[in-house]
Design brief:
By secondary structure, the chain is an all-alpha fold. Helices cover 60% and strands 0% of the residues. The longest helix has 26 residues, at 139-164.
Length: 252
């Protein structure tokens, strides 16, 4: 046997085996399988569209058995709804991690708006577009999608409140402005889907910034109150004229 010779000044210790990775729990394995299925669903949905998405495609991309897939999801509609929920959760987490880096005060509007707008660049919007289009003629998908979309709308408004900050969120018109912004962003994002090679400009972004700043700088409206100024008092109904007495009646 050949002896190991140490170089001067160095000590040699026997090599130790690489520690084995800790075994995952059954719940961790289940969570990983479910997450892989949902990620594969989003990828197939964006690439192939809802009509051509099949359970076999998702199963193959995720690398799981068909039995594993049907164990978690009973239908195609249930599968895609869960995939959209996971995707939105990931997107929200990504956005909220950057909220603390935003400036405060009026300077917050620009970067906050651009942060919200960037959410339309990922897979969430094209995947949602596929579902909206398919739901028009698919009653089962429409029934699953409508409550999901209502909940998503509420979550998006809450996300906007966090991104734009408490001062903007406290404005009486905040939710109305957020709805207008999100609707306009959907329309702009749709044109990019239809013509992805067209050059993108900052014009819509600058217009959105102008809208938010204009609303934020305007005085907040207050509930209508009863007028107190004499000039603002409502006109009294005209009273009918009383008949005048004739000279003969006065004499009597």
């Amino acid at each position: 046997m050949t002896a190991t010779v140490a170089a001067p000044g160095l000590s040699v210790s026997p090599s130790s085996p690489t520690p084995a990775s800790p075994r995952r729990t059954q719940q961790q394995r289940r969570d990983a399988t479910r997450s892989a299925l949902l990620d594969a669903t989003v990828a197939c949905l964006v690439e192939r569209g809802y009509a051509d998405l099949t359970i076999a495609d998702v199963q193959a991309r995720a690398g799981v058995s068909r039995g594993a897939l049907t164990h978690y999801f009973a239908s195609k509609a249930e599968l895609v709804m869960a995939a959209m929920d996971q995707l939105y959760g990931q997107l929200s987490e990504h956005v909220l991690l950057r909220v603390d880096d935003l400036p405060t005060g009026p300077e917050r509007v620009g970067p906050a708006l651009e942060l919200v707008w960037r959410t339309f660049d990922g897979p969430l919007f094209p995947a949602a577009m596929e579902l909206w289009t398919a739901a028009r003629t698919d009653p089962s998908l429409r029934a699953a999608l409508l409550p999901h979309e209502r909940a998503l709308g509420r979550h998006l408004r809450q996300l906007c409140r966090r991104v734009f900050g408490p001062e903007a969120a406290a404005h009486p018109a905040a939710d109305a402005v957020f709805d207008v912004l999100l609707t306009s962003m959907r329309g702009e994002a749709m044109t990019h889907l239809l013509n992805p090679d067209a050059p993108r400009t900052q014009r819509p972004v600058e217009q959105w910034k102008h809208i938010v700043r204009a609303v934020a700088s305007a005085p907040a409206s207050t509930p209508a109150q009863a007028p107190t100024d004499e000039a603002e008092q409502p006109e009294q109904a005209e009273q009918p004229e009383q008949p005048t007495e004739s000279p003969a009646q006065k004499e009597n």
